[in-house]
Amino acid sequence: MFNIFDYLDHESRKSASLACCRWEQIYSNYCTKRFVLCNYRCHDQSDFIRYRDPTTGDPASMLKHTQRPYRKVHLNLFFKEEKSIIVDRKVSNALGELFQPRWLQQLVVLKLGMALSPERFTVELSDAVAKMDHLQELCLHFMREDTDWPLFSKLKLVNASLNMLEVQDVWPGVIDCPNLRALTIGFPLYNNCNPYVLHRGQGPFWNMKQLKELTIIDRSLNFHLEYKDLFTGMEQLCKLMPQIERLNCYGFAISERELRIICESFVGLETLMLCSVKTHGANVFHHLRKLPNLRKLGIFNMFMRESFGVRCRSPLLACPCSRSYF
Protein backbone atom coordinates (compact mmCIF):
# COMPACT_ATOMS: atom_id res chain seq x y z
CA MET A 1 0.00 0.00 0.00
CA PHE A 2 2.87 2.39 0.73
CA ASN A 3 4.11 1.95 -2.85
CA ILE A 4 0.61 2.72 -4.16
CA PHE A 5 0.34 5.81 -1.95
CA ASP A 6 3.61 7.09 -3.42
CA TYR A 7 1.86 7.51 -6.80
CA LEU A 8 -1.09 9.47 -5.35
CA ASP A 9 -1.35 13.10 -4.35
CA HIS A 10 -2.23 13.97 -0.78
CA GLU A 11 -5.96 14.50 -1.41
CA SER A 12 -6.23 11.12 -3.13
CA ARG A 13 -4.49 9.42 -0.22
CA LYS A 14 -6.91 11.06 2.23
CA SER A 15 -9.88 9.85 0.17
CA ALA A 16 -8.47 6.30 0.05
CA SER A 17 -8.03 6.31 3.83
CA LEU A 18 -11.83 6.59 4.23
CA ALA A 19 -12.40 3.17 2.67
CA CYS A 20 -12.01 1.24 5.94
CA CYS A 21 -10.28 1.30 9.32
CA ARG A 22 -7.36 -0.74 7.99
CA TRP A 23 -6.66 1.70 5.18
CA GLU A 24 -6.94 4.61 7.60
CA GLN A 25 -4.33 2.97 9.83
CA ILE A 26 -2.02 2.37 6.86
CA TYR A 27 -2.49 6.00 5.78
CA SER A 28 -1.67 7.21 9.29
CA ASN A 29 1.53 5.16 9.42
CA TYR A 30 2.44 6.33 5.92
CA CYS A 31 2.07 9.99 6.92
CA THR A 32 3.92 9.77 10.20
CA LYS A 33 6.92 8.08 8.60
CA ARG A 34 7.16 10.60 5.77
CA PHE A 35 5.58 13.80 7.06
CA VAL A 36 6.68 16.20 9.79
CA LEU A 37 4.75 17.67 12.68
CA CYS A 38 5.71 21.33 12.36
CA ASN A 39 4.30 24.47 14.01
CA TYR A 40 5.74 27.22 11.80
CA ARG A 41 5.65 28.45 8.22
CA CYS A 42 8.92 28.94 6.36
CA HIS A 43 9.35 31.74 3.82
CA ASP A 44 11.92 29.88 1.73
CA GLN A 45 12.93 26.37 0.74
CA SER A 46 15.00 25.80 3.87
CA ASP A 47 13.51 24.18 6.97
CA PHE A 48 15.96 26.05 9.20
CA ILE A 49 14.13 27.41 12.24
CA ARG A 50 14.49 31.20 12.33
CA TYR A 51 13.27 33.87 14.70
CA ARG A 52 11.21 35.48 11.94
CA ASP A 53 9.31 32.27 11.11
CA PRO A 54 5.86 32.82 12.65
CA THR A 55 4.72 30.26 15.20
CA THR A 56 1.29 28.88 14.30
CA GLY A 57 -1.06 27.98 17.13
CA ASP A 58 -0.17 26.72 20.58
CA PRO A 59 2.63 24.10 20.32
CA ALA A 60 1.81 22.61 23.74
CA SER A 61 -1.81 22.02 22.73
CA MET A 62 -0.73 20.62 19.35
CA LEU A 63 1.60 18.09 20.97
CA LYS A 64 -1.00 17.12 23.57
CA HIS A 65 -3.92 16.49 21.25
CA THR A 66 -2.33 14.93 18.16
CA GLN A 67 -3.04 11.20 18.05
CA ARG A 68 -0.71 10.18 15.26
CA PRO A 69 2.69 8.82 16.29
CA TYR A 70 4.83 11.34 14.41
CA ARG A 71 8.49 10.41 14.23
CA LYS A 72 9.64 13.83 13.02
CA VAL A 73 8.91 17.03 14.94
CA HIS A 74 10.01 20.61 14.08
CA LEU A 75 9.15 22.90 16.97
CA ASN A 76 9.51 26.68 16.81
CA LEU A 77 9.41 28.25 20.27
CA PHE A 78 10.57 31.73 19.17
CA PHE A 79 7.59 33.50 20.68
CA LYS A 80 7.61 37.25 20.09
CA GLU A 81 5.74 38.52 23.14
CA GLU A 82 7.36 41.45 24.91
CA LYS A 83 7.34 39.93 28.41
CA SER A 84 9.89 37.18 28.89
CA ILE A 85 7.88 35.61 31.70
CA ILE A 86 5.06 34.86 29.24
CA VAL A 87 7.52 33.42 26.73
CA ASP A 88 9.17 31.23 29.36
CA ARG A 89 5.77 29.92 30.44
CA LYS A 90 4.84 28.99 26.87
CA VAL A 91 8.21 27.34 26.29
CA SER A 92 7.90 25.42 29.56
CA ASN A 93 4.41 24.16 28.61
CA ALA A 94 5.56 23.06 25.15
CA LEU A 95 8.64 21.26 26.46
CA GLY A 96 6.54 19.64 29.18
CA GLU A 97 4.42 17.99 26.48
CA LEU A 98 7.35 17.20 24.20
CA PHE A 99 9.22 15.43 26.99
CA GLN A 100 6.35 13.05 27.74
CA PRO A 101 7.32 9.34 27.41
CA ARG A 102 5.20 8.78 24.29
CA TRP A 103 7.16 11.42 22.37
CA LEU A 104 10.55 10.45 23.74
CA GLN A 105 10.10 6.85 22.62
CA GLN A 106 8.93 7.58 19.06
CA LEU A 107 10.99 10.58 17.92
CA VAL A 108 13.51 9.96 15.15
CA VAL A 109 14.07 13.61 14.11
CA LEU A 110 13.77 16.61 16.43
CA LYS A 111 14.40 20.23 15.43
CA LEU A 112 13.93 22.69 18.27
CA GLY A 113 14.32 26.47 18.32
CA MET A 114 14.10 28.76 21.36
CA ALA A 115 15.01 32.33 22.32
CA LEU A 116 15.45 34.54 25.38
CA SER A 117 16.37 32.28 28.32
CA PRO A 118 16.89 28.73 27.01
CA GLU A 119 19.53 28.02 29.68
CA ARG A 120 16.63 27.61 32.11
CA PHE A 121 15.78 24.31 30.42
CA THR A 122 19.29 22.83 30.25
CA VAL A 123 18.66 20.02 32.73
CA GLU A 124 15.30 19.02 31.24
CA LEU A 125 16.67 19.01 27.71
CA SER A 126 19.74 16.97 28.69
CA ASP A 127 17.61 14.34 30.43
CA ALA A 128 15.14 14.15 27.53
CA VAL A 129 17.83 13.59 24.88
CA ALA A 130 19.29 10.73 26.91
CA LYS A 131 15.86 9.00 26.96
CA MET A 132 15.24 9.17 23.18
CA ASP A 133 16.09 5.59 22.19
CA HIS A 134 15.30 6.01 18.47
CA LEU A 135 16.60 9.53 17.86
CA GLN A 136 18.76 9.82 14.74
CA GLU A 137 18.81 13.55 13.97
CA LEU A 138 18.81 16.42 16.47
CA CYS A 139 18.91 20.15 15.63
CA LEU A 140 19.02 22.74 18.39
CA HIS A 141 18.74 26.40 17.34
CA PHE A 142 18.96 29.01 20.07
CA MET A 143 19.14 32.78 20.08
CA ARG A 144 19.92 35.50 22.58
CA GLU A 145 18.75 39.09 22.23
CA ASP A 146 22.14 40.32 23.45
CA THR A 147 25.72 39.50 22.45
CA ASP A 148 26.53 37.50 25.56
CA TRP A 149 27.64 34.35 23.77
CA PRO A 150 28.27 31.91 26.63
CA LEU A 151 25.18 29.75 26.21
CA PHE A 152 24.42 26.27 27.51
CA SER A 153 27.95 25.29 28.59
CA LYS A 154 26.27 22.80 30.97
CA LEU A 155 24.16 21.18 28.25
CA LYS A 156 24.85 17.42 28.05
CA LEU A 157 23.94 15.58 24.85
CA VAL A 158 24.27 11.86 25.54
CA ASN A 159 22.45 9.49 23.18
CA ALA A 160 23.30 6.03 21.85
CA SER A 161 21.35 6.21 18.55
CA LEU A 162 22.02 9.80 17.39
CA ASN A 163 23.57 9.99 13.92
CA MET A 164 23.36 13.70 13.01
CA LEU A 165 23.67 16.67 15.35
CA GLU A 166 23.29 20.39 14.62
CA VAL A 167 23.72 23.05 17.32
CA GLN A 168 23.29 26.75 16.60
CA ASP A 169 24.49 29.42 19.06
CA VAL A 170 25.13 26.84 21.76
CA TRP A 171 28.30 25.07 22.87
CA PRO A 172 27.40 21.86 24.77
CA GLY A 173 29.65 20.91 27.64
CA VAL A 174 29.22 17.21 26.83
CA ILE A 175 28.61 15.40 23.52
CA ASP A 176 28.78 11.65 23.99
CA CYS A 177 27.03 9.92 21.09
CA PRO A 178 28.90 6.80 19.94
CA ASN A 179 26.91 6.56 16.70
CA LEU A 180 27.39 10.23 15.70
CA ARG A 181 28.67 10.66 12.14
CA ALA A 182 27.83 14.28 11.18
CA LEU A 183 28.12 17.42 13.32
CA THR A 184 27.10 20.99 12.40
CA ILE A 185 28.03 23.80 14.77
CA GLY A 186 26.98 27.43 14.45
CA PHE A 187 29.04 29.37 16.96
CA PRO A 188 31.77 32.07 16.96
CA LEU A 189 35.25 30.54 16.90
CA TYR A 190 37.28 33.74 17.25
CA ASN A 191 39.42 34.16 20.35
CA ASN A 192 37.05 36.06 22.64
CA CYS A 193 34.35 33.42 22.23
CA ASN A 194 36.29 30.19 21.98
CA PRO A 195 34.97 27.14 23.87
CA TYR A 196 37.75 27.14 26.47
CA VAL A 197 36.62 30.59 27.63
CA LEU A 198 33.12 29.23 28.11
CA HIS A 199 34.43 26.43 30.32
CA ARG A 200 36.82 28.55 32.38
CA GLY A 201 39.94 27.22 30.73
CA GLN A 202 38.84 23.58 30.60
CA GLY A 203 38.03 21.82 27.39
CA PRO A 204 34.49 20.47 26.84
CA PHE A 205 34.04 16.69 26.85
CA TRP A 206 33.25 15.76 23.29
CA ASN A 207 33.50 12.15 22.16
CA MET A 208 34.27 12.71 18.47
CA LYS A 209 36.42 9.70 17.53
CA GLN A 210 33.75 8.28 15.22
CA LEU A 211 32.83 11.60 13.49
CA LYS A 212 33.10 11.67 9.68
CA GLU A 213 31.67 15.07 8.67
CA LEU A 214 32.01 18.49 10.31
CA THR A 215 30.23 21.69 9.21
CA ILE A 216 31.08 25.03 10.82
CA ILE A 217 28.73 28.00 10.35
CA ASP A 218 29.42 31.46 11.74
CA ARG A 219 26.86 34.09 10.76
CA SER A 220 28.44 36.68 13.03
CA LEU A 221 31.38 37.25 10.68
CA ASN A 222 29.60 38.10 7.45
CA PHE A 223 30.60 41.78 7.56
CA HIS A 224 33.98 41.42 9.25
CA LEU A 225 35.77 38.74 7.27
CA GLU A 226 39.14 40.48 7.57
CA TYR A 227 39.11 41.50 11.20
CA LYS A 228 38.47 38.32 13.16
CA ASP A 229 41.15 35.93 14.36
CA LEU A 230 39.95 32.32 14.37
CA PHE A 231 43.36 30.83 15.12
CA THR A 232 42.78 29.83 18.74
CA GLY A 233 39.24 28.52 18.30
CA MET A 234 40.05 26.57 15.13
CA GLU A 235 43.16 24.98 16.59
CA GLN A 236 41.31 23.81 19.70
CA LEU A 237 38.41 22.50 17.66
CA CYS A 238 40.64 20.47 15.35
CA LYS A 239 42.14 18.62 18.30
CA LEU A 240 38.75 17.18 19.22
CA MET A 241 38.10 15.39 15.92
CA PRO A 242 41.26 14.62 13.91
CA GLN A 243 39.78 11.77 11.84
CA ILE A 244 36.99 13.55 9.90
CA GLU A 245 36.71 13.01 6.15
CA ARG A 246 34.48 15.97 5.15
CA LEU A 247 34.86 19.57 6.35
CA ASN A 248 32.56 22.47 5.40
CA CYS A 249 33.17 26.06 6.58
CA TYR A 250 30.46 28.63 5.83
CA GLY A 251 30.02 32.30 6.74
CA PHE A 252 33.61 33.24 7.60
CA ALA A 253 37.04 33.59 6.06
CA ILE A 254 39.92 31.18 6.65
CA SER A 255 43.44 32.62 6.84
CA GLU A 256 46.50 30.82 5.48
CA ARG A 257 47.54 29.96 9.04
CA GLU A 258 44.16 28.41 9.75
CA LEU A 259 44.25 26.47 6.47
CA ARG A 260 47.63 25.07 7.55
CA ILE A 261 46.10 23.97 10.86
CA ILE A 262 43.24 22.25 9.02
CA CYS A 263 45.56 20.41 6.64
CA GLU A 264 47.88 19.30 9.42
CA SER A 265 45.06 18.20 11.74
CA PHE A 266 42.65 16.52 9.31
CA VAL A 267 45.06 14.45 7.23
CA GLY A 268 42.29 12.06 6.18
CA LEU A 269 40.13 14.74 4.52
CA GLU A 270 38.40 13.72 1.30
CA THR A 271 36.18 16.83 0.92
CA LEU A 272 37.04 20.41 1.87
CA MET A 273 34.52 23.22 1.25
CA LEU A 274 35.45 26.79 2.26
CA CYS A 275 33.42 30.00 2.03
CA SER A 276 36.42 32.38 1.84
CA VAL A 277 40.20 32.20 2.04
CA LYS A 278 42.47 35.15 2.93
CA THR A 279 45.99 34.94 1.55
CA HIS A 280 48.99 36.99 0.43
CA GLY A 281 49.60 34.80 -2.60
CA ALA A 282 48.77 31.60 -4.45
CA ASN A 283 51.24 29.64 -2.33
CA VAL A 284 48.44 29.12 0.19
CA PHE A 285 47.50 25.98 -1.71
CA HIS A 286 50.78 24.20 -1.04
CA HIS A 287 49.30 23.16 2.32
CA LEU A 288 46.91 20.89 0.41
CA ARG A 289 49.86 18.57 -0.29
CA LYS A 290 49.39 17.30 3.25
CA LEU A 291 45.97 15.85 2.31
CA PRO A 292 46.71 12.69 0.29
CA ASN A 293 43.05 11.59 0.23
CA LEU A 294 41.55 14.93 -0.86
CA ARG A 295 39.19 14.42 -3.79
CA LYS A 296 36.91 17.47 -3.70
CA LEU A 297 37.83 21.10 -3.00
CA GLY A 298 35.49 24.10 -3.08
CA ILE A 299 36.34 27.76 -2.40
CA PHE A 300 33.74 30.45 -3.05
CA ASN A 301 35.90 33.56 -2.55
CA MET A 302 39.61 34.39 -2.44
CA PHE A 303 40.72 37.55 -0.63
CA MET A 304 44.23 38.16 -1.92
CA ARG A 305 46.46 41.03 -0.78
CA GLU A 306 49.07 41.79 -3.39
CA SER A 307 52.53 43.15 -2.67
CA PHE A 308 51.49 46.70 -3.63
CA GLY A 309 48.72 46.74 -1.03
CA VAL A 310 45.63 46.22 -3.20
CA ARG A 311 43.17 43.57 -2.16
CA CYS A 312 41.77 41.33 -4.87
CA ARG A 313 38.55 39.37 -4.51
CA SER A 314 38.17 36.45 -6.89
CA PRO A 315 35.30 33.95 -6.79
CA LEU A 316 36.15 30.28 -7.26
CA LEU A 317 33.94 27.32 -8.01
CA ALA A 318 33.80 23.98 -6.27
CA CYS A 319 35.74 21.41 -8.23
CA PRO A 320 37.22 17.93 -7.79
CA CYS A 321 40.87 17.84 -6.87
CA SER A 322 43.67 16.26 -8.80
CA ARG A 323 47.02 15.58 -7.22
CA SER A 324 48.74 17.02 -10.31
CA TYR A 325 47.54 20.51 -9.31
CA PHE A 326 49.45 20.34 -6.05
Give your account of this protein's structure.
This protein has about 325 residues and is an alpha/beta fold. It folds into three domains: about 35 residues, no CATH class; about 160 residues; about 100 residues, no CATH class. The chain is about 25% helix and about 25% strand. It is built from ten helices and 15 strands. The strands form two sheets. Strands 1, 2, 3, 4, 6, 8, 10, 11, 12, 13, 14 and 15 form a twelve-stranded mixed beta sheet that branches. Strands 5-7-9 form a three-stranded parallel beta sheet. It is globular.
Concise description?
InterPro entries: F-box-like_dom_sf, LRR_dom_sf. The chain has helices spanning 2-6, 10-16, 21-34, 59-65, 84-98, 101-104, 122-131, 195-198, 231-240, 256-265; strands spanning 37-38, 72-77, 109-115, 137-143, 156-158, 164-168, 174-176, 182-186, 205-207, 213-217, 246-255, 271-279, 296-305, 311-315, 319-320.
Low-confidence stretches: 221-227, 307-326
- Per the principal axes of the C-alpha atoms, what is the gross shape? globular
* Structural class estimated from helices and strands: alpha/beta
**What multimeric state do the chains show?**
single chain
What percent strand? 25-35%
Organism: Anopheles melas
InterPro entries: F-box-like_dom_sf, LRR_dom_sf
Protein name: F-box domain-containing protein
What is the strand and helix layout of this fold?
Blueprint: H1 2-6, H2 10-16, H3 21-34, E1 37-38, H4 59-65, E2 72-77, H5 84-98, H6 101-104, E3 109-115, H7 122-131, E4 137-143, E5 156-158, E6 164-168, E7 174-176, E8 182-186, H8 195-198, E9 205-207, E10 213-217, H9 231-240, E11 246-255, H10 256-265, E12 271-279, E13 296-305, E14 311-315, E15 319-320
Parallel strand pairs: 1-2, 2-3, 3-4, 4-6, 5-7, 6-8, 7-9, 8-10, 10-11, 11-12, 12-13
Antiparallel strand pairs: 13-14, 13-15
